[in-house]
Amino acid sequence: MTLKPPIAYEIFNNNEAKLECKMTGQDQTALNKIQITWQIDGRTVTDNISETTNSGDKTSTLTRSRTEWQSVNNVRCSANSDNTTPVTRDLTIHKADGVEPKVTVHILPEEDTNTGDSAEVTLVCLVSSSVQQDYFIGWLEYSGEKVSTYNDGNNFLPLKTKDGFSVTSIYKTSKEKWNKYDMFSCNVWAAGSKRLMKSRNVSKGLSNSTECKK
Predict the structure, then answer these.
(1) Is residue 97 part of a domain?
(2) What sequence ranges are listed for the domain Ig-like (predicted)?
(3) pTM
(4) Same domain, 190 and 118
């Protein structure tokens, strides 16, 4: 059984957090008998939950508004069936409101990218802090006044460093977009924070990325 945490795409674009609890590896008869339940901070919740059963898996999705999600510290999903020990998965949200993370964006040098419009440009957003906290990282593409919806990058698990912790998000865009768009932005929101997102903007025309708050 797996418990999938919310993604930045849903939180930033739809102002909601969706968690998925998926049970696999059972025969269909056993899956149909399984009941998946949810707890938030030790309290059982039954609202805003949807469930789907497919061949080989059963998924329960818990949805909370972004405002509600700010106050959540722990989520547990449990799979229960007759005459079996419940299987549980826990998600602990690491918060450190008041500790400002440092956000930087790094770009592969031009000579390290392939030529032609079909080539990709890789942007790396590095978020570092003196304490461990969970971050939601979303990417924006600007073209004049037109702004894309937030996109998810490839986000990695936190790493312990000598100065604290760091999280990396990798975002790939085409060479055509890199040449066309005015700005790319890495946007970072610390879980549970009431502060505005922290952003780092970069473009082909900038020799250095610029930092601003949104």
Answers:
(1) no
(2) 5-92, 101-203
(3) 0.85
(4) yes
